[in-house]
């Protein structure tokens, strides 16, 4: 049986290599969960040890002593999108633990204007309907202490469900695995996401796609109606009087009306973390952690090559007698290309506070999800309940 599992882990990526690899597939799973972790710029791979370890590093589940549950809510883009997370974990024995969680990222009440204009070119607002675009992830995690001293291992199996109204939907599956190691006041963690690659298979409503295609109209940035017409044997966008619609470079635009690919495969990602804890006086403790987030592709990260890109992050947590917590961090170092083709370096600061009393921990984080522009800060709240306190 062990040989079969090893064969699956090693060769599944090869079986999927012919599929459509994506550098940024299932990106909602990279946002993170739990206000405490987000307040530290996600630098918790080495130190996570509660129910939220299901996401950050399943090896940390070994640290729980009894039933634990967690809830989180965040609103993005001034409430347009909502991001929610719920999880539950419990120890199996002194050496192992198991947990489950669900993540939903959704934009609801989107206006469906595909039938706004009828075949005669008349606008009828009664033809507008609403739909939702939502991404779900269901996770099952298992963790265990290894026979080697101070080493913990965990694995996370996930099912991904993505729905875009009645237009398209997909199912996906993948695995994550993590390790934690502790020695003295130093802690180390390694998290491998999509370790076998995560495969998504899309089902597209071809009848709905054909209806949009047959309608042959679009809208420009000023709300003017555009049509698909054939000019010199090429399909281009034109106005009602057949004047071509041009882009900012003065080029005609050919509409993309082909069905998108129905399969996509998410590349593996690695997170490496190193942390240390200092005792400050009688009541204060300072936890610091540095993470390296690695993708096997060239991105806009501060360290980038064709084979590997690395985005560093750092966070700290100062607590008073494990009762009140102050957190801060910085990450998401990205090079941004300006309009004049010059590049500038951006970063994402994060801030958080927390309070723990009688087995209940309430956390808050303020984070700039885009790290550029104005009004991009999001307020994130989470609550974690540890049932071990109520057994005392």
Structure description:
By secondary structure, the chain is mainly beta. The chain has one domain (19-206, 259-391): Beta Barrel (Porin). Helix content is 8%, strand content 53%. The protein is built from 4 helices and 21 strands. The protein has helices at residues 2-15, 35-39, 53-56, 206-215; strands spanning 21-22, 68-76, 81-93, 96-112, 129-145, 151-164, 168-183, 186-193, 198-204, 217-219, 225-231, 234-238, 263-266, 269-280, 284-295, 303-304, 309-320, 324-337, 343-357, 360-368, 377-386. A 14-stranded antiparallel β-barrel has the order 2-3-4-5-6-7-8-14-15-17-18-19-20-21. A hairpin with a 2-residue loop joins strand 3 (81-93) and strand 4. The chain is elongated. Residues 1-19 and 370-375 have low confidence and may be disordered.
Question: What are the key terms here?
Answer:
14-stranded antiparallel β-barrel, 53% strand, 392 residues, disordered N terminus, three-stranded antiparallel β-sheet, Porin, mainly beta, elongated
- The general outline is elongated
CATH C-level name: Mainly Beta
Q: Specify the number of helices.
A: 4
Largest sheet: 14 strands, antiparallel, barrel
- Integer average pLDDT: 83
- Count of discrete domains: 1
Question: What is the rounded Rg?
Answer: 24 Å
Q: Taking strands numbered 1, 2, ... along the chain, how are they ordered across the largest sheet? A: 2-3-4-5-6-7-8-14-15-17-18-19-20-21
- Low-pLDDT parts are 1-19, 370-375
Helix content: under 10%
The amount of beta strand, in percent, is over 45%
Count of individual beta strands: 21
User: Could you tell me how far the N terminus lies from the C terminus, measured between alpha carbons in angstroms?
Assistant: 42 Å
CATH fold-level name: Porin
Superfamily (CATH H level) name: Outer membrane protein transport protein (OMPP1/FadL/TodX)
Question: What's the CATH architecture name?
Answer: Beta Barrel
């Amino acid at each position: 049986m062990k040989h079969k599992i090893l064969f699956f882990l090693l060769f599944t990526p090869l079986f999927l290599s012919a599929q459509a690899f994506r550098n940024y597939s299932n990106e909602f799973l990279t946002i993170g969960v739990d206000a405490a972790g987000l307040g530290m710029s996600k630098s918790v791979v080495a130190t996570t040890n509660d129910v939220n370890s299901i996401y950050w590093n399943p090896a940390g589940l070994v640290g729980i002593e009894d039933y634990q549950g967690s809830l989180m809510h965040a609103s993005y883009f001034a409430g347009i999108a909502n991001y929610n997370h719920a999880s539950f974990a419990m120890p199996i024995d002194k050496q192992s633990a198991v947990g489950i969680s669900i993540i939903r990222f959704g934009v609801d009440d989107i206006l469906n204007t595909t039938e706004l204009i009828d075949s005669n070119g008349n606008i009828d607002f009664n033809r507008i309907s609403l739909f939702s675009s939502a991404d779900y992830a269901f996770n099952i995690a298992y963790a265990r202490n290894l026979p080697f001293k101070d080493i913990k291992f965990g694995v996370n199996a996930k099912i991904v469900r993505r729905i875009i109204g009645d237009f398209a939907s997909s199912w996906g599956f993948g695995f994550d695995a993590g390790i934690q190691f502790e020695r003295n006041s130093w802690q180390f963690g390694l998290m491998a996401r999509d370790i076998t690659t995560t495969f998504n298979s899309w089902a597209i409503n071809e009848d709905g796609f054909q209806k949009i295609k047959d309608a042959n109209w679009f809208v420009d940035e000023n709300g003017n109606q555009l049509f698909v017409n054939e000019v010199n044997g090429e399909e281009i966008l034109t106005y009602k009087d057949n004047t071509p619609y041009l882009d900012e470079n003065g080029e005609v635009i050919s509409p993309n009306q082909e069905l998108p690919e129905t399969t996509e495969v998410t590349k593996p990602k690695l997170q490496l973390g190193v942390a240390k804890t200092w005792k400050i006086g009688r009541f204060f403790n300072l936890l610091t952690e540095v993470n390296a987030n690695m993708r096997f592709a060239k991105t806009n990260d501060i360290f980038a090559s064709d084979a590997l890109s690395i985005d560093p992050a750092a966070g700290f947590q100062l607590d008073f007698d494990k009762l009140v917590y102050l957190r801060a961090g910085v990450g998401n170092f990205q090079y941004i290309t300006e309009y004049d083709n010059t590049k500038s370096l951006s970063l994402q600061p994060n801030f958080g506070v927390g309070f723990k009393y009688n087995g209940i921990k309430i956390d808050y984080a303020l984070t700039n999800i885009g790290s550029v522009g104005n009004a991009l800060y999001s307020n994130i709240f989470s609550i974690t309940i540890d049932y071990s306190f109520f057994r005392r």
